[in-house]
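Form 12-C: Joint structure prediction
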Amino acid sequence: MRVVPALPGEFTPPARLLLGPGPSDVHPRVLRAMSVPLVGHLDPAFVTMMEEVKALLRFVFATGNDLTFPISGTGSAGMEACLVNLVEPGDEVVVGVNGVFGTRMADVIERTGACPVRVEAPWGRVIRPEQIEAALRNCRHPKLVALVHAETSTGAWQPLADAARLAHDHGALFLADCVTSLGGVPVEIDAWGIDAAYSGTQKCLSCPPGLAPATFGPRAFEVAKSRRTRVQSWYFDVGLLARYWGEERVYHHTAPISMNYALREALRLVAEEGLEARFARHRRNHTALAAGLVALGLELAAEEGHRLPMLNAVAVPDGVDEARVRTRLLGEHGIEIGGGLGPMKGRVWRIGLMGESSRGTHVLAVLAALEQALRAEGRRVVPGEALAAAQAVYAAV
Amino acid sequence: MRVVPALPGEFTPPARLLLGPGPSDVHPRVLRAMSVPLVGHLDPAFVTMMEEVKALLRFVFATGNDLTFPISGTGSAGMEACLVNLVEPGDEVVVGVNGVFGTRMADVIERTGACPVRVEAPWGRVIRPEQIEAALRNCRHPKLVALVHAETSTGAWQPLADAARLAHDHGALFLADCVTSLGGVPVEIDAWGIDAAYSGTQKCLSCPPGLAPATFGPRAFEVAKSRRTRVQSWYFDVGLLARYWGEERVYHHTAPISMNYALREALRLVAEEGLEARFARHRRNHTALAAGLVALGLELAAEEGHRLPMLNAVAVPDGVDEARVRTRLLGEHGIEIGGGLGPMKGRVWRIGLMGESSRGTHVLAVLAALEQALRAEGRRVVPGEALAAAQAVYAAV
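Section 2 - Result
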């Protein structure tokens, strides 16, 4: 009994400005790269392309690590790939938990049979080096310290260098979640002593979701190779992946060809802009947005001094319906912003200014739309004040 | 020390005819679908699209299973997703091993801590129901029977219905690997009593690699929900995935938006052609190819009566350099065919006629190229005989 479904027509998505927690807007050149015919995953032309992608990823990660390549899944697959290779049952893993993604890391660590040692901070605040140090001192043989560089659920910007140093002082590896930070703020794998890191394509790299760029330093790869137990995941086994992405080119799984085309083009755009210019653009648009939000009487939820430029968690004022404002922005303006997750559900909006989405025009558009929506919610807002505040930032540059 | 890489130019792949084990050629409509701007993974427009993809997948899988959706990884991710959810440490799993992908299943089963009970057949032959029954009788509480429907490494076409019935008679679930079969030969999830199955997008669905369509029947989902232990993978935890792909729409990971656009369009093309017409096309082109291969003095490696139409493993004649022939086809004609894997390395070519790649013109092209290459290898081949044999098949239809 084969039920033939009512055949839907061609998919024509509504026009959107993607100012949520990702995906971000994708450059037309990246979209076009995906519309190019496929070659095989062992084709010499694809093998050349793999090397180019690896070189470009080393550039954005600021690393010389050979083993720098995209995992064939989204950012969370990158998280799982790093953790299942680096830890084994019984290992002590110090993990920072101050948002959804630190919580998720602890969950993944538990599922490997390792023991997460949670170092907590209130959501929106960052983890202090003293906390990491205290946790390490309480461990017998800490295997790994894992922190989220850019906590997408709160907008908190976690410093990493001190924590990496502490991890090494205690004989542990250091793993960083760079899903939202890579391409938007400096990520210095080698300079900060990060042994392994993963990211996602759909944030500040402005490539569609589907790949998780990852990097493994020599110490991390050595740990992965000298495990007592097999890696619990075949799909994410870095020893096997390294044979395909390394010189041997041994078939493991069929690489997502078109997504790799897209990533290559997105990374070319990053390199053409230059990292410093790109970081400055992200900072500038964040400053303008923040000025406009203040003028609207709104507050950023993340700790002052540790606010990410690409992810702005905004506290929802009392008496304002969080979801209704988002629905209005999407319905009336085609602007997507995100809601809160976990304990922040209903309490914050998350405005993303990532990669291609980080543009002055977008900042003005979302401020104008928010001003209108807040007025509809009964808030008293001085017309034009938010736009003027943002424009003043741009004028001052 | 940030090394700016020499910036590569725009990627322009060489023209290829993809007649290997996948990826297959992708229809221009599918390529175009990926070049469309993105919407968010919780956008109402995307949620509607998810439902359409699920309905189209139920159609090709011939199932009424609610839980039918694409896993965010390639076919091997689908394999791992099914196995890690359905089996637990200590479970007995009867698994057919007669090629690379059955071997891979056994490997994944071991990594879950379950006990694979291997039922073997020589590569190229299929597993007999009596073998399954004997293995089940030797188990105390068999949890699952797992077979590969279309063994991409050998071209063997495994019957499934009897094995599924035997599994149920012994209180076990039945899992099928339909990576290469789906969309090319009948796959009857409900009629054959298959409890769970997975596929890949890059074979007979002719969509780029990157997603693994999967389906879980009520019994399988019940087993996954009533486990004693947690699913070892967070990324593949079907309980969490079902909350995003089901009615709740709870964020799990960011769905690969563009790949889902592509899959939807590829499935629309399948539905427009009709499954019976598509299966007949695959059979016809296989018959023509086989006739041409015989005329070239070549033999198919898979067991007679169990030869897949979309994957033709061809024995390499003595004195012929397997790799040199493939290199010649790729270099001189832009035709990709596959080599052998594992014990078949160097001993077979694998000619795929999958989805968009299954065309009469392609059959003639690969036969002409092979004829030329074999002559260059010193084989005596009657000019034009292979093409005539293939053309006779088309003329007789």
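Section 3 - Comments
Chain A touches chain B through 89 residues (CB under 8 Å). Chain A has a mean pLDDT of 97.
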